[in-house]
Amino acid sequence: MSDSDTRKALNRAIGYLGIREHSRQEIRGKLKRNGFSDETIEKVLERLDTLNLLDDLSFARNFIRSRTRVKPSGLYKLRYELRQKGVPDDIAEEALREYDSAAQCLNAALKKMPFLKGDQEHRRKKLHTHLVNRGFDSQTIRQTLDELLTN
Known about the structure:
Arc Repressor Mutant, subunit A, 74% helix, cytoplasm, Regulatory protein RecX, RecX_HTH_1st, Regulatory_RecX
């Protein structure tokens, strides 16, 4: 491994981070797929840390904010997606502390409501399935459905 390899890997990583924020694990995987050695990757990750360019907590918070703005999701789904992105569980949990599951569930339900046809029971079942698929927990779903569909 040479300084040239480290410089190339660092430039590549900075390029990735210039496009969007990445988790530490995502950068590690991208560099590995590009053929860089584990030793080079670790040096690059350390350098990115010293430059404050790599922060899993910031990444997780921004991911949650972005994800829920476009497609409201529940805690289960967000936790799973953060794990897929390589964010450690303790950092994911810290980022999710600020998340308002009830508000997001209501938002997801309100977005879906105009597209539901049929009687109230049919709409309730469809909406329930939609919210489960979005990763919301059953208690939050029940509260949301009661709030929206109670006459």
